[in-house]
Amino acid sequence: MKIHKHLSGIKEGWDLMSSNYQATSDISLKDIHYSPLSYGEKSAKLIGEVAGKKYLELGCGGAQNSIALAKLGAYVTAVDISSNQLSHAACTCERLDISVNLLQANIQNLNYFADDEFDGIISIFALEFIEDIDIFFSESNRILKKGGALIISTTHPLGAFEWDNESKNLLVTDYFNPPMEIWREQGQMNHGVTYFRTIEELFSRITNNGFVVTKLTEPKPLDPQNENLSPYKGNYWTEFRDRLNMVPFAVVIKAIKN
Ligand SMILES: C[S@@+](CC[C@H](N)C(=O)[O-])C[C@H]1O[C@@H](n2cnc3c(N)ncnc32)[C@H](O)[C@@H]1O
């Protein structure tokens, strides 16, 4: 099996960040989110009817999206590598008496699931932590039913670059080779990383692995007067509003298994 070089650093980093991330992002359980300060599924309408269907969330974190899907009547399995993120998810499920099948595993390879097992897959802000996304997409394709949708949101390639000191200009050095971000939480033994991919690379890797891309968006933040429609309720993201108004934070892609 192909090794994921930075997996232990990423897991350790998310275990350390989890409680602060969950407290400050305060992600809504009422709608499926795709990007900070932007509209969620109620406006985006990417998923459609889920009642009675089998859904999978990959890199679920606190499983807010899985919980929102379960509330709509889906049978949901949610996978994450971080035990602390999954503990947060488990506490929320218990508090709300919502049933989500939580699983601790690496989502780069999904060989623990059967062929054609799911009606739909959703993965929001997890792909950027996966080293080999060909395996991720081919495995997602294998476990989806024919005609099933994979919905991905991942960090925009322009997020790889630094802003100038006044946060006015983004210093794009080489768009075609976005740098990998290396991060280390306080007390962390191994460093974690974020991988950035150009839009062309994302598109090619998805379509080369048996999918047809039916929608691709770069969501803008909602106007401040409509901010209540954003599934992110915490103030962690609002300080980045000016930047997010200039450069998209996420690329959201809907792809259908051929
Ligand atoms: C930014 S959080 C997003 C969580 C959730 N999808 C959301 O939108 O709130 C990224 C999550 O991906 C998980 N993750 C990163 N790499 C992973 C891997 N290889 N396998 C499973 N989970 C992974 C992290 O533990 C973390 O919980």
Order of helices and strands: HHEHEHEEHEEEEEHEHE
Tell me the fraction of residues in β-strands, as a range. 15-25%
For the report, how would you describe the main beta sheet? 7 strands, mixed
- The best one-word shape is globular
Number of domains: 1
Structural class: alpha/beta
General description of the model:
By secondary structure, this protein is α/β, with parallel strands linked by helices. It has a single domain, classed as Rossmann fold (3-Layer(aba) Sandwich). It has a seven-stranded mixed sheet, with helices on both faces. Helix 1 packs parallel to helix 4. S-adenosylmethionine (SAM) binds next to helix 1 and strand 2. S-adenosylmethionine binds next to helix 1 and strand 2.
Short recap of the structure:
With 258 residues, the chain is α/β, with parallel strands linked by helices. 28% of the residues lie in helices and 23% in strands.
Throw out a few tags for this protein:
globular, seven-stranded mixed sheet, Rossmann fold, alpha/beta
Element layout with pairings:
Layout: H1 7-25, H2 41-44, E1 54-58, H3 64-71, E2 75-80, H4 83-96, E3 101-104, E4 118-124, H5 133-143, E5 144-155, E6 162-163, E7 170-171, E8 181-183, E9 192-194, H6 199-207, E10 211-217, H7 241-246, E11 250-257
Parallel strand pairs: 1-2, 1-4, 2-3, 4-5
Antiparallel strand pairs: 5-11, 6-7, 8-9, 10-11
Helix pairs in contact: 1-4
The structure holds S-adenosylmethionine.
